[in-house]
Structure formats: C-alpha cells, structure tokens
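Each record in this resource describes a single protein on a pair of labelled lines. With that in mind, the following record should read easily:

===
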Amino acid sequence: MKRRTLLLSGLGGAGALLVGWGVLPPRSRLGAARTLAPADGEVGLNGWIKIAADGSVLLAMNRSEMGQGVHTALAMLVADELDVPLASVRLIPAGHDALYGNVALFIGTLPFHPSDSEPGAETRTVKTGQWVISKVARELGINVTGGSTSVADGWDLLRVAAATARAQLLGAASLQWKLPAAELVVTNGVVSHPSGPKAHFGELAKLAAATPPGSVQTKDPKDWKLIGTTAPRTDLAAKVDGSARFGIDVRRPGQLYAVIRHCPMLGGSPGHVDVDAALKLPGVERVVRLGSYGGSTAAVAVVARSSWHAMQGAQALAIEWQAPPAGAADSRIIMRDLERAARDAAKSDDGFTFYSRGDVKAASQAAAQHIEALYRAPYLAHAAMEPINCTAQVKDGKVDIWAPTQAPGFARAIAATVAGVPEDAVTVHVTYLGGGFGRRLDVDFVGQAVRIAIETGARPVQLLWPREEDTTHDFYRPAG
C-alpha cells in the first residue's frame, strides 16, 4: 500500500469516528439569503446573489482580482445562468462567512499526480481523499485566492446559485401572473410571457425571496451565451481611466504613512536605533520598532505625514542590527545542502514521483549512453508591480484593514491577534491587487500595519515597503 493511500485511509476513518461527522452530508455552499445584508431596495435570494430595485444583480465576490480576470470570469457564470447582460452584474464584498471559503484549493493539495487518473489507478483513494478534504474545507471556510482555483471553485457553485435565483424569479412571476413557469422567458433580466406580461428582476425579487426554487438545473452547455466567449473585462474602464483603487491608492481622513526597514539577517533584530536625524526631518512624527509578524523579519518603521517624508525618515535612521544567536543563514550552504539532497533522492525511491510511465530503471540499464545534468533554481522574489502596502486603523476597539490581499481571512486573524481584539471586531476591505503571484497570501505586512496603527492614536496609517525592501524580504519561491 502506498503511503498516501494509508494516509488518506486513516484520515477518512478518523473523520468517520467524529460523532457521526463522517456520515453527515457536506455543508451546503449555497447559503441563506440572510448571509448578505440587504441595503435599501435590495433583496437577497441566497448567500451569493441579491437583486437591486433596478433589476441589476449583486454578486458576493469572494476572490481577489490581481490582473488574472477572475472578477470577470465569475460574473460571467452568474450572468449566463440568469440571462442578464454582463454589465448588469455588480460585485460586492463577500464578507467573512465560512460560506466563501476556497474548497478547490484544498482539494488541489492532495498528493495525487496524473498517473492516478489512468485506468487501474487508486480511483477509490482519490475520490475518498477529495470527499474528505472537500468536507473539511467547507467547515473551515478559509477564503484565499490562489493556485489557479477560483473558477474551478466557483464553476458549479455560482452557476447553481444563479440557477436557483432564476428559478425563484420565474416562480414569483408564475405566481403573480398565474401562468406556468415553463412558458416564461428570461431575456436580459426581464421575465416575460408570450401573452404580454413582463417584469424585470427588481419587480419580482421580493416575491421571489419567499418562493421555493423547486428542482434546479443549470443550463445545458449548448445554451450558454457568455461562457466560452471572450467577454470584455468588467474592470477595464476603471483601470484605463484611473478610477480603479488598489491598496496603494487608499486615502482615509487624517491618514499617516509609514515606511519600513527590515533587519538584513533572518532571525536578527534591531539593536540600538539612533532616531534623532529622522525625527528632525519635516513631516516625521514617530519611529516604531516592529517584531516578527506572520514570518516577517524584525524591522523599524518611520511614521510621517506623507510617504515621501516617511521614506526620507527611514533612510535617515542609524540602526545597529543584531545577528541571530545561531548566526545568519548562508546562501552557499543552503544550495550545497539542496544539491546533496537532490543527489541522494535520485539514488533512492524516497522522492515523490509526479508522473511515471513505462519501466524507467530497465530502460536506463539497457541504454548505451547516459547523460546527467544538474539544474539549479535560485530563490526568487515575486516582484509584483504594486509595492507591498496595507492601511490600518485601530479605533474604539475595532480594526479596519484596507489591503491588496489574497487571504482576507488570514489578514483578519493576524490583525485581531496583534490588536488584541476578537476577529469579529476586524473588518478587511480587499482592494484591487497590483499583482500577487502568491506573495499576498502572506499577511506579514498586515500585522506590521496594525502594530504601527496602534501607535498613531486612532489615526489610519498606510504602511509602504520600498521596492528594495520588497525584493530583499519577500517570501521567496523556493530554491532547488
């Protein structure tokens, strides 16, 4: 039995023993209408969709837009099922309910490779593992955008949510007009009947919310109008005219700015810090020492009335950095150890085989010539276009975060920990991301921003990492 087979079998068995948890159906991801708080004239139909008074569709968006087009893609799924123009779908923040977690990302972490989907592979183990992980992920509800999983996660989910809303709207029209729902037609968000009655979604929404959807079926692929087409990006105009707001664009009343300098040694810390020169500069208000937050290196930040003043102040600091007790990590030693590990793995069967076909050992033994090559890959920074930043305000026992983050749930957790408040007291406002590539799954900069905000007397503060800090203190792509 393979190790992953044993692992997943044990995991499934353990889950089944948890007070019947293993035999209960997975938590529904459709959600109740009450999950989305309606504003004036809005009506919630489920945990994903509200209908506005003008008939437009409000979609709870649980994924971060960082240039990959996910906001457009997910809106297309809903627009197609509801038969509304793509421009009629407006995005609203999804909030922090477990409903909005990313299940597909967790399934993608299972230790299966392409060979497992071939005939004779461990299909039962694969299916069991996916079922267990899917169920766990639904309970945890961890909301992250990553692993190219946003459309995979929303594919069935959002189409079913939209199809359910459509069924309710058709049911409402059927009740109101006393006509069979099967005879009703939806065109561009308007429900009509050949005999004459018609109404847009906004006129039917209140009755629809009280109408059970009955049996729901998503569209047959042959009936798709948007899915599979090249639709215009919904954020294109805002990004062209400059009205799109990224994290670095956040401006709050009374906002301050902070610029950071990290210890150049992993595990090191700031020793003596001469702040006199920095505090004498115009606009500089204070200097804040920072520990390690979410895996970051210890640092010192300068708070000022503008980002330029903060940058000047940070450069004026005279800092004596203290090395870690065990000494700093050495790149040459790391690469040497990686090379040794690679060679050792090649000589044994302990390495993870991603794909295998045929008898490699037999072919190698029969070969007349052998060619060996060693490939090295360095640590690489993600180098997102938008510098690392986060705006935080700690006031009256509550914390507000404005951040270009891929992981609002993690951001909320670290903000609550640093500020010493419950997570319910933290609100994360996710902005557009100027690139992510996985870097913004980490929330070290959120913890730093909250710690600085605690020192600013309830005023919001925007933390900025200069480009050189981003490059030298990233969570790097692993070397190999």
About this structure: The chain has three domains: 3-29+103-140, 33-100+148-223, 248-325+382-472. The two ends are 30 Å apart (CA to CA). The longest helix spans residues 150-177. Confidence is low (pLDDT under 50) at residues 1-19.
